Each structure stands twice: as C-alpha cells, then as structure tokens.
Amino acid sequence: MAEIQLSHETAKVLEIKPVSSDQLPAAVELDRKSLGGMWTLDGYQREHTSPNSDLLAISLPHPNGSHLVGIGCLSAILEEGHITLIAIHPQYQGQGFGQALLYHLLRCACSRQLEWATLEVRPSNHPAISLYQKFGFQEVGRRRRYYADTGEDALILWRSGLHKPEFSLTLATWEQQISSRFQASGWVFISQT
Fold it and tell me: Which residues in the chain land under pLDDT 50?
C-alpha cells in the first residue's frame, strides 16, 4: 500500500483492493442492500477463490477496521472479461464510486490481456447504463426475461479493444478524471489492484 501523509480533517481515505475472506459476509450484506440479494455467500466465495476472477472492494476507514461501500467482480473467460457485478451501497451511490470500480475492473481486464469486456444490465437501470456508455460500452443484444425477480430483460453491453495499445492511454485518462473528481470532494484513493 502506498504511504500517503494526510490530515484526517482535510481528506477522506478510500481503498480499492481485492476482497478479503473476512469481507465476504459484508459483501453479501452490501449485495442485499444495493442489488436485492443477487449473490449468496457461496457465490462470493467461489469468485473470491477463482484464479479467473477479480473481486474488488471499495472500503472506507472505520474504527473497527473498514466499512465496505462497493464491490465489483470481473471473470476472465478466454479473451473476454465478463463484469458480473458492480454494487454500491445506496448511501454512496451517485458519488463516483461505481466509476472507480468499473475503471479498476477494466484495468484488471487489461492486465489479464483480455480483448473485450461484457456485462448485462437492466434496461430500467438508467444510471448504470449511462456509466457504462461513458466507458465505451455499447448495446449488442438482449437476454429475454433474464432477471428472475421481475422477469425483466437484460441488455448485453460490450466494450472492445482492451488489448490495443491505445486502451492504456484511455485508462490513464479515466484514472485522471476519476482522481480529480474525488480530490475535489476531499477523497484520496489508495489502490492495491
């Protein structure tokens, strides 16, 4: 972890790092609060131990350790990075935490030398669709009645070109934009991904 000297009065520290095994119950609780309970503890344990998955957490310092405010997961399947999950605690939505997680998941996909990223999203989830479009995702299809809880379809979104040299420049631009946004709000990121 990078050493950063900060005054607690001037900056709030935010960490993005792989989910630890002791954070898995908190991940399930966060999933329940933000996604309605999409995954069980077994699902999180499976992704946590898979060598083909990157399960990341955003956490804030807390007197008893840290407070989980976001989780994201990317699974590598051949040349594809499938973003299976991005969840932000309802109290922290709309503040850029989803952008930060998506950026780090795409950075993980790039590190794995994957060629493209895909994900599914509810057509009614306009904030998520807007976020994905900012990162170059485009709609390529639809899965009928994908979401069992409502019977709602899922849009299939796709982002290609992760393996191309210019994608590294795109990542650097996104990192600067995200860092600037958080610095303007008094947040400082510490990344261990």
Answer: 1-10
